[in-house]
Design goal:
Two copies of one chain form a homodimer. In chain A, helix 4 (about 130-145) links the parallel strand 8 and strand 9. The first copy, chain A, has helices at about 1-10, 30-45, 60-70, 130-145, 160-165; strands spanning about 15, 20, 30, 55, 75-80, 90-95, 105-110, 120-125, 145-155, 170-180, 185-189. Chain A is an alpha/beta fold. In chain A, helix 2 (about 30-45) crosses helix 3. In chain A, the strands form two sheets. In chain A, strands 6-7-5-4-8-9-10-11 form an eight-stranded mixed beta sheet, sandwiched between helices. Chain A has a two-stranded antiparallel ribbon with strand order 1-2. Strand 3 (about 30) of chain A pairs antiparallel with strand 5 of chain B.
């Protein structure tokens, strides 16, 4: 998606450790006009597919998911990262490694909000190692829900997550795919 | 706001310890159509006020803030709850008690996204003890930004946060104000 790629070129900063900082418009300050354009692009890409709910994960997926949900006309459910071990029995949960904070988080969703009849679009801001997206896929599986596909804002295509998840037969639509990046330069696929 | 009060009556559940569970439409599953109506109501309430940015806090404020931001035509910044002590020098930060997880969280915002020229609307899903909202007010103060007011979805008016924050001269517009609640009943102001 041209508009997102141009924004990344203009405002993105590549930092040490394969970090792409896009916090001026994507995941700290958020440009909701851009999010609406992204939502319309996913509507176009997934046209013909029946989707009744968007599933995302806190925190930075939530804004993109909510604006996209308006374009699809469906509700959003966000999976919560729980730092308590005190999990009630009425949730689906997976363990996911936390790259930001270290260690492992329990990622949970109430059983009331993921149903076997659900046809889900998964939304997240980044796809790199794929841990977050695989967590959402596992939660959907526990509920018996159908994953129609995943809408990702920025995929680091040089990391293994995208390949591994597509190999499972999951359709992944990333609006900006980065082939390579280094100090001061970003190359898109 | 009638629509929100009716939704709380219909789907809200009062649990032990003054907990109001509204997770079917507000802060776990999210009804973005309702959020848009809430956003339009805040636009009406704050009409005539100059607002150039919405400030909220992760995680459950983000969805409401993003949809409201579309109605206002402004960007959103969300304050992050950091569980690392490893905070870089380029952020404003406050300590806020965490009722969900216990202990204290550092709540941070990048200095790049809160400016002295900003005229902020603060948005959050709940106002009870006021700790989260006071944290946002303090972050705005550190930046020298102006707080035009706060838009809250649900205020527990029987808890002290709302009174304390209004006493500081901050305008708080809560779309549903709960006077009292108990098993199976909710009374609005």
């Amino acid at each position: 998606m041209k508009e997102l790629e141009e924004r990344i070129r203009r405002e993105g900063a590549v930092e040490d450790g394969d970090v792409l900082k896009v916090d001026s418009f994507l995941n700290h300050q958020m440009d909701v006009g851009l999010f609406a354009a992204m939502g319309r692009e996913w509507v176009r890409l997934f046209s013909g597919e029946e989707i009744n709910k968007i599933l995302t994960i806190e925190a930075s997926g939530i804004g993109i998911a909510c604006i996209a949900a308006q374009e699809f006309g469906v509700p959003v459910v966000f999976a919560k990262k729980s730092r308590t071990k005190n999990i009630a029995g009425d949730v689906y949960h997976v363990e996911a490694p936390s790259f930001t904070h270290g260690g492992v988080s329990d990622v949970i969703v109430s059983k009331r909000f993921l149903l076997p009849t659900d046809r889900l679009l998964l939304i997240d801001d980044f796809l790199a190692n794929g841990a977050a997206l695989e967590g959402l896929i596992e939660l959907a599986k526990q509920a018996g829900a159908t994953v129609v596909g995943a809408g990702i804002a920025v995929e680091k295509a040089f990391q293994p997550g995208g390949k591994r998840i597509r190999a499972k037969g999951i359709r992944v639509e990333s609006l900006a795919k980065i082939k390579a990046m280094g100090k001061g330069q970003i190359e898109f696929c």
